Please model this.
Amino acid sequence: MLNGTKTFTVSTKPNADGEAVSTALTLDLEGCSDETVLALAISAAVIKWQTRARKHGIPERASIKLADLAPGKRLVVAPVPMTAAEIAAKAKGDAAFRAEVLAALAAE
Model:
């Protein structure tokens, strides 16, 4: 169990064009279990990844290291290549993808 408080100054815009408002936000850690902290960290990681994916493209699969999300570090997203079985399954149901695969194979 954690205890104590942590206070941060956060800046929040009411909308994309709005002016940022500064808030002193205090987090009360009293009674917070390690499992709760891990669940919150995972949730924050997913949200941060989704924000990046919206800007840089949404892959079918990706992998991130939670440690790379620490303050001051840059998020690195490693695309996870599709397995042969995944390629075959997608090609069966997606004619355009199947054509891409066949064209790539023919070019080799």
